Amino acid sequence: MAVFVALGAFLMTLVGGWTAQRVTDRRHLVLGLAGGLMLGVVGLDLLPEALDAAGEPVFGVPAALLLFVAGFLVAHLVERLLAVRQAAHGAAGHGNGRVPQVGLTAAAAMVGHSVMDGVAIGAAFQVGGGMGVAVALAVIAHDFADGFNTYTLTSLYGNARRKALAMLFADAVAPVVGAASTLLLTIPEGLLGGYLGFFGGALLYLAAAEILPEAHHDHPARSTLLCTVAGVAFIWAVVGVAE
Fold first, then answer.
1. pLDDT for 104-162, tens place per residue?
2. What is the model's pTM?
3. Secondary structure in 3-state letters for the chain
4. Would you kindly state where each structural domain of the chain is located, as residue ranges?
């Protein structure tokens, strides 16, 4: 049953990616919306889940928050190292100097998050059918944002459309794989919380340091800001309905 329901997440992810492709003439609005969706996912979904699942505090600080900061720093470090390496080899870069590997790495992290979404669906169905349906509806709703962000992140960093579509498809399949995996194994809660915290930090870096500045660079318009706020509000609504 869990795998069958996860097919809804598969379809919704593809719809999100398709939407991101169709609005290329309003790129600043797409990026503004993507930044808002990412901020909403981090602050309203990932961090609360990470704190709930995290283990004991480390020197008075929740482990999930330490990993959240670590994820932010690692994302920054990886981007800088790749940029320096590219400059040392005399590469001009793509998309205003952005490094394509950063986009692929970020998209791969989105895929990992979607696998965990599928695991959540499977685990909820193990508890009960009602809970399984509730969790599945929440995952399906925000998988539109996952597909949207996966395609946007990959293409923003100068990757070819073929690679962006490949990452989108991988992100769409991921919840089905995650749901199927619960038939065979169970992920420890502490490990899951740590992963969510680390991923949240990396995602926040990309939203705050890359996506939103790019959205407002050539188009400092009120409409772009409204798209960002709408993205956050959408995730808030999804989380509220799921509770």
1. 888 888 888 788 778 877 876 765 666 566 567 667 766 887 888 889 888 877 888 89
2. 0.67
3. CHHHHHHHHHHHHHHHHHHHHHCHHHHHHHHHHHHHHHHHHHHHHHHHHHHHHCCCCECCECHHHHHHHHHHHHHHHHHHHHHHHHHHCCCCCECCCECHHHHHHHHHHHHHHHHHHHHHHHHHHHHCHHHHHHHHHHHHHHHHHHHHHHHHHHHHCCCCHHHHHHHHHHHHHHHHHHHHHCCCCCCCHHHHHHHHHHHHHHHHHHHHHHHHHHHHHCCCCHHHHHHHHHHHHHHHHHHHHHC
4. 2-242
